[in-house]
Amino acid sequence: xxxxxxxxxxxxxxxxxxxxxxxxxxxxxxxxxxxxxxxxxxxxxxxxxxxxxxxxxxxxxxxxxxxxxxxxxxxxxxxxxxxxxxxxxxxxxxxxxxxxxxxxxxxxxxxxxxxxxxxxxxxxxxxxxxxxxxxxxxxxxxxxxxxxxxxxxxxxxxxxxxxxxxxxxxxxxxxxxxxxxxxxxxxxxxxxxxxxxxxxxxxxxxxxxxxxxxxxxxxxxx
Length: 222
Known about the structure:
Structural class: mainly alpha
Distance between the termini: 41 Å
CATH class of the largest domain: Mainly Alpha
CATH architecture of the largest domain: Orthogonal Bundle
Oligomer: single chain
Shape: globular
Number of strands: 2
CATH topology of the largest domain: Tetracycline Repressor, domain 2
Strand content: under 5%
Radius of gyration: 20 Å
């Protein structure tokens, strides 16, 4: 493993264990066993290293989502709602675990959301906005009774469901005494996809919403 790869591996391990804010460039270099100047040489900064680390894990996730979406629409027919959801969810759940449970990248995402939401928002935008546009369009094709706003809300709730399922599996596992285990991907998909599909197929709500107040808009922006 060359110096660049050692830095990436060391950063992932330390970020996942401590959070990004509690890890210095010196810590990463020491863990990797290289000169700290190499962080600047390869990545310019700790933020640049984090960005590269995030991109490295997101690119195969996006590629697999696109591959599944295309494969589920064979013969020129558009995939069903359930298949669109599967194409989006399956790769996300498949990469969340390793042999010991949650993967280091999954733990990193959870910690980053807790300590630096602005940084996470920027990373998500850079890595997922394009694929999000494609999947929202596919969902709209399956759900012509919904407005664009309706689909966006339900997609937003879907993201929250996936993230919590991936990062917080212990609660349901403990309450069910192991009978409900989100780390079993196939079982989770069998439960999650019908649940989300029913939510997406619910009647439209766009015309029923109260107008947003300025104070509410401001809170949402924080």
